[in-house]
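Below is a filled-in request sheet from our internal design queue. Each sheet records the structural input a requester submitted and the sequence that came back. We keep these sheets so that new team members can see what a complete request looks like end to end.

REQUESTER: design group, bay 2
PRIORITY: normal
MODE: inverse folding
CHAIN LENGTH: 240
BACKBONE (tokenized):
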């Protein structure tokens, strides 16, 4: 039986991935901090193995993940906080960087030495890392950092035959986006997001960006002059 370890499995995209992989017959290790929400997974699939830890804490991450291995690791956990009116709050930026960048790095330190040739790690970034969006200084920077890290690591792990996939979702309807107070174009359901991710990973894709049209628009936008990028992104994220 193939094994998959998923962080952020207590909510949103990670939760749906855990349900879908379990339904497909995979042995799932579902990670998160909220025991109650994680338990809803085992209520549906009793075979799912639960793993509770705070990935921003290296010692906690080591204790939880040491000895665990899987052919597929999906580092999906993340959080989003916005800056308001250009006021830079260092504590907020640190929190976001800790969760979205240092958290996955902590997991990789423990998991990579335990993984065999032929296995794969997916790092869940965001299309927000492609283009500077208003108020997303911390979130976008954390995801851009993760994308750079993933692309660089992919080169250095070739000799071990461990594949790295960078997942770049657009807007997905989850508790994370339900807090947003602006229009979110081309938003998709967690089921569709899970389908895109699972299909991309099954094909061994290095980058999985979706929904395709939204990702394409942002990729093209990222090549435009800053002035045009700003005009487009401000229109896109205007308050609803
Ligand atoms: N939703 C979107 O539109 C969207 C778009 C682009 C990228 N993404 C990315 O996709 C990923 C999943 O997002 P989502 O929308 O599914 O969010 P979500 O519903 O808020 O779920 C976030 C998950 O991350 C876990 N988590 C957060 N901080 C953690 C920590 N310190 N240690 C361990 N686990 C932690 C949470 O676990 P607990 O609740 O158990 O603490 C939860 O399971 C994130 O990386 C997000 O940035 C989402």
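RETURNED SEQUENCE:
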């Amino acid at each position: 039986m193939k094994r998959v370890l998923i962080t952020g499995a207590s909510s949103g995209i990670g939760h749906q991935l855990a349900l879908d992989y379990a339904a497909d017959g995979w042995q799932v290790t579902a990670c998160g901090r909220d025991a109650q929400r994680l338990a809803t997974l085992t209520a549906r699939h009793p075979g799912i193995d639960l793993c509770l830890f705070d990935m921003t804490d290296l010692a906690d991450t080591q204790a939880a993940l040491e000895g665990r291995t899987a052919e597929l690791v999906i580092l999906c956990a993340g959080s989003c906080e916005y800056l308001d009116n250009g006021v830079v709050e260092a504590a907020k930026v640190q929190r976001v960087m800790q969760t979205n960048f240092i958290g996955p790095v902590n997991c990789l330190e423990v998991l990579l030495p335990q993984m065999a040739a032929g296995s794969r790690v997916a790092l869940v970034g965001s299309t927000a890392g492609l283009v500077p969006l208003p108020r997303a200084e911390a979130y976008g920077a954390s995801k851009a950092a993760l994308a750079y890290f993933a692309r660089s690591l992919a080169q250095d792990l070739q000799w071990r035959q461990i594949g790295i996939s960078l997942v770049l979702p657009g807007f997905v309807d989850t508790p994370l986006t339900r807090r947003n107070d602006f229009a979110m174009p081309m938003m998709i359901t967690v089921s569709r997001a899970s389908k895109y991710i699972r299909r991309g990973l099954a094909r061994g894709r290095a980058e999985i960006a979706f929904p395709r049209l939204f990702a394409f628009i942002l990729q093209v936008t990222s090549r435009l002059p800053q002035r045009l990028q700003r005009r487009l992104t401000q229109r896109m994220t205007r308050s609803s």
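SHEET NOTES:
- The domain at 3-236 is CATH 3.40.50.720 (Rossmann fold).
- The chain has nine helices and seven strands.
FILED BY: M.R.
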